[in-house]
Amino acid sequence: MSGILDGKRVLITGVLLESSIAFHTAKLAQEQGAEIILTAFPRPTLTERVAKKLPKPTKVVELDVSNDEHLGRLSDVVAAELGGLDGIVHSIGFAPQDALGGNFLNTPFESVATAMHVSAFSLKSLTTACLPQMQNGGSVVGLTFDAQYAWPQYDWMGPAKAALESVNRYLARDLGERNIRCNLISAGPIGSMAAKSIPGFEELATVWDSRSPLSWDVKDPEPAGKGVVALLSDWFPKTTGEIVHVDGGLHAIGA
């Protein structure tokens, strides 16, 4: 039985732990027939160790998305490894500690700038670095955390995600003529490494216990991974600039 990503070549960022959405995306992508390459920062050895738990061996490339030298060599590395690309998964977000945890009013611009560069601008810089390998079009999928709202403890990652969502729309506008679709998955809270870096994450996650129409398990990244894989596939051929919620339906509930 063929998979929905048969013949696809996909670059996936953000595989740090088995608990990450990116890891489950990589696993599902391989199971659905894709060839993949992983990028890692700041500890490629950590990603290499986790990658051994994937169904098939895969190459891990060091990539700091704020490093122009790393971005500049990425296309050649992808060409040598996969011969081209059909998909990109952007699962990257970072804010310094003083930009999180209730410090919104006191965060210095330098920390805000870092959050914006790594978490939002990188969607553009990663995509444009890979464009030479996407001659036949393809799909770019990023991960957001619903930026319509101000969340407890999330602070400057909220505006960074809002910027990411806007960058996605502008990429969709500019890359449509190349037949490249750009979409985001807005996932509910997952107990990943990124979540653990947010002070008070548990307080934020408990909102889902009382308000999500569908039961939500912070320990299960697979639903979000399935959403990413679906958007990478050819089953959304005319969908771009979209944000697909995989959050148990909480985004639709007022109170």
Strand content: 5-15%
Mean pLDDT: 95
The geometry reads as globular
Pattern of helices and strands:
EHEHEHEHEHEHHHHE
CA-atom Rg in angstroms: 17 Å
Which architecture does the CATH hierarchy give at level 2?
Answer: 3-Layer(aba) Sandwich
Structural class: alpha/beta
Short description:
With 255 residues, this protein is α/β, with parallel strands linked by helices. The chain has helices at residues 21-31, 44-51, 68-82, 109-130, 157-175, 193-196, 201-205, 207-211, 222-232; strands at residues 9-12, 35-40, 60-62, 87-90, 138-144, 180-187, 243-246. Strands 3-2-1-4-5-6-7 form a 7-stranded parallel beta sheet, with helices on both faces.
Notes on the structure:
- It is a single chain.
- The chain is of the alpha/beta class and 255 residues long.
- It has a single domain, classed as NAD(P)-binding Rossmann-like Domain (Rossmann fold).
- Helices cover 39% and strands 14% of the residues.
- It has 9 helices and 7 strands.
- Strands 3-2-1-4-5-6-7 form a 7-stranded parallel β-sheet, with helices on both faces.
- It starts with 8 loop residues before the first strand and ends in a 9-residue tail after the last strand.
